[in-house]
Input
Amino acid sequence: MGGLLYLIRKYQLFLLFLLLELVSFGLLVQNNYYQNAVFFNSANSFTGTILSWSSGLREYFNLRQINKELAQDNVQMKQLLARVTQKNEQLNIKPIQDSIIINKYTYTLAKVINNSTNKINNIITIDKGAKHGIKKGMAVISPTGIVGKVIQVKQNFSTIISLLSSKTNISVQIKRNGELATLTWGNRNPRIAKLNDISTNVKVQVNDTIQTSGYANFPPRLMVGIVKKVRLIPEKTFYEIEVELSTNLSSLAYVYVIQDILKLEQDELEAETLEELTE
Amino acid sequence: MNNVVLIRQTGAFFAYLFLQIFFFRHLDLFGVAFCFLYVNFLLFLPINTDNRVLLFAGFFVGFFVDGFDNTLGIHAFACVLIMYFRPFLLHFLSDRNEVYTLSLSENGIFWYLQYTLVLTFIHHFTIFLLQQFNITYFFDTLLKGVASALLTTVLGLLIQYLFFSPLVKNTR
Output
């Protein structure tokens, strides 16, 4: 026993070093694999508040760009609205009466207070949380395209796993022919993503527009990006396709969090069906 | 005396973390060079600081930076690592000329560069390795480590010359 105590005293610095390294490594592993278990991150009220000061400071330098993007977004919305009203008038379409379908998607505006694009899994922090109706799993878009998915919600802040993540797996389609594919990130360039699961008998061209399919959390027909490079690998039955993302995720300022009020019902139904099938 | 040191270190702690969180965190040169200047706080803790205090300081500072970067554990791990190596490196470097303080003006630029570059590189390289979490892009990670260590050291040197230069000392 005395010998043990002597050893501990002799190597106490090394043991302390080992202990602290083990704690750090434990935190790291826990953070990597169980996103929910995190207790000290950027959505924390303390870090969140300081980060929102920091982003407020930086915002001044980007005001011109932010203004331009929002104005462009506004023009697009006006155009779309005009086109839809015009079309409805011409075709004399009876408007849908079911308000729950009309109001299926609700948008919440949020300010980006922390963002990164140079990590393997990039996380965005926004200044809206449970208090503002944000829930886990909601889709997040920007004026120029899709951004990511809410992964953690605190009282006043939430974190979003951005498209630039090794875990990204989003159902998209080619606008021209409606062909489905999944979007992943190649973990290098913040502007480029990869398209998977498109078999070689489908025609894909450079400059094809890629949009959301509506099968994932995102509403359908949202802009994702444009095909930049199509490469056929010999001996494989799939294309290797690079997509230039329409959103520049490194200069995000404001995002919209989309709530799908029918999503819960859909999820329940699908889960029940799955249960039925397995029985 | 002790109180003065404590107050000064507390001031340095807040100054370095403020700079790190508000400015240096966003610095990104060509996607290879990043700046973690806050390590200078740890590198220039007084020379007579207890080794156990050094380890705890490393852990605490790293943990704090992690909170803002969503990288829980990574900075803490790297900081504790360099804080463990710090006394050994100082001992090794002082074999040739005795070191009593850790200031640039008294030990010369060569000593300063040796001391900061080695520890900064270990720290940065560890961070990039842990971020990557696998070995496939090893040379890319190595490049990032070297480039970032150089960037941090150069910026740190600038700060040393600006705020801790002999000129300032004489006027005080």
In short: The longest helix of chain A spans residues 45-91. Chain A touches chain B at residues 12-13, 16-17, 20-21, 23-32, 38, 40-42, 44, 46-47, 50-51, 54, 57-58, 114, 116, 118-120, 123, 125, 159 (CB under 8 Å). Residues 45-92+100-165+252-261 of chain A form a domain with the Thrombin, subunit H fold (CATH 2.40.10.340).
